[in-house]
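Class prep. Write one:
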Amino acid sequence: MNKFFILLVTAFLLFSCGTDSKEQAVQAIKDAQEYLTPFENGNGNQTATYEEVIAFYKKLAADFASIQLEEIGLTDSGKPLHLISFSKKSIDWSSANEDKIKILINNGIHPGESDGIDASLMLLRDLATGKVNAPDNLIFSAIAIYNVGGSLNRNTSTRTNQNGPESYGFRGNARNYDLNRDFIKADSRNALAFYKIYHKINPDIFIDNHVSNGADYQYTLTHLFTQHNKLGNAAGDYLHSKLQPELENRLAARDLAITPYVNVFNSSPENGFSQFMDYPRYSTGYTSLWNTLGMMVETHMLKPYKDRVLGTQAIMEEMIVIGSENVSEIKQARADSFTAYKAATSYALNYSIDNSIADTLNFLGYEAVIGKNELTGNNLMTYDRNQPFTKKTAYQNYFKAIDSVSIPDYYVVPQSQWKIIELMRHNHIQMELLPKDTTLNVTKYRIANYKTATSAYEGHYPHSNVQVEEEVIVLGFRESDIIIPTRQPGIRYIIETLEPAGQDSFFKWNYFDTILQQKEGFSSYVFESTAQKILSEDNDLKKEFDSLKIANKDFRESNYQQLDWIHKRSPNYEKAHLTYPIYKWNKK
């Protein structure tokens, strides 16, 4: 697309139409001249800079009443997030806007994956100028660039395999976080600003625009919908059985082929692949906690930049149509899911692939070729674009729950856990204060086992394979300790973060690591006499101790192990060690 071509077409319209149409054509020429994006002004291989993006949206907001531009929160870069919203009528954010389809777009979470940044500039321009016919029931919002710091860190080389644009931002943010791993642990100001935007809008549909490459294939466009079994209930059913196939069909009518995200690395997709499981650390995993229908657009980085940008725009255009035409059904699916979760007595925490069922794709790929690499001398798999194919390919996109937890009436959070309480507030979780010192019958977790990562992952050494032991105890709590009712819209966020065995629980992200270290100990030469007295007064404990000495050679030959075993069963052992400091309470 270039200015000369646009002027030529609109000039033709001027001389071939009636008076009213001529006026529209004149306006079209004006719009084409004034509102061309940097992408359109270039040769199809440029992406707008941060400054150009914000300047463009400021101009749109100044010139069109349908465009609203807001600065929300701060990011780690020191700059705010910019939220751009389109609606034919003025938006009242204090209203739930339940008569509108609310769509939220996230762009530039990885600024080197800039397709959505340029596509959104053009789409919001087209909505404002009327080039795209906007439905009356639409509120369309976009985060201009989520990773502001990464966008400002512009370069030409860090996207090693990517085919354009010529220059772009960096994946890490201003503090070098990958923001698409930060939606639960919330180490960045960006995440806190996103919370404000998300809960302000409460979107029905969420799209996060990305670029990826794990293999080579014919598609420019792939989609990564939030995993439908994990989303669950009516919302999960609607996403899987209606939203995804409708999007695929509408894009096919535009001769735009799309396939599920090709979740492979160093293997050929023709052998089959599984859906990517987006746990809550990811953007769509986070938004699914409020039953939003979420997807990531994943364009293929080896395809021309222009095709990727225009394809991303087409996906958003079609999602607008689908959303506006099915607003009642989408709202009902979300409402039914909220109702189901509020009534549930248990909640699935972890999932695995269900190998008993899979879909079959007519996959458009390229033949994989294995040959000796000249550099390394080892075999290397490549793809031969001269050998395209269409093959039946297994796609494993069904998951099953492998464990669950009971849902209590309340979680009890001591006021000392202020960081947890703050994150609950950021996520609009309803909380209550204990009005006075109170004794409650609660369920206590003890951390029985866990593994810790041996290398850093996004600023943490997260835990995994967490196992807990439960015990019902009577425990005193202080006035102003927090109780969190579970029967509320944020029920899934509450459970996913507070249950220590959850895939992205606060425990797994090291929020409670202080309980993993003993604060008090013993000196062997002093405690030995105390240990002898303890065993002499407890016959059962002594029998267990003697049996362990006989059965375990290491234990038998270690003074410290024997004394530590007795110490952990004595009144001297600190109660805080391995005791998870969040409790479950059923009010009866």
Remarks:
- The first helix runs from residue 3 to 16.
- The radius of gyration is 28 Å.
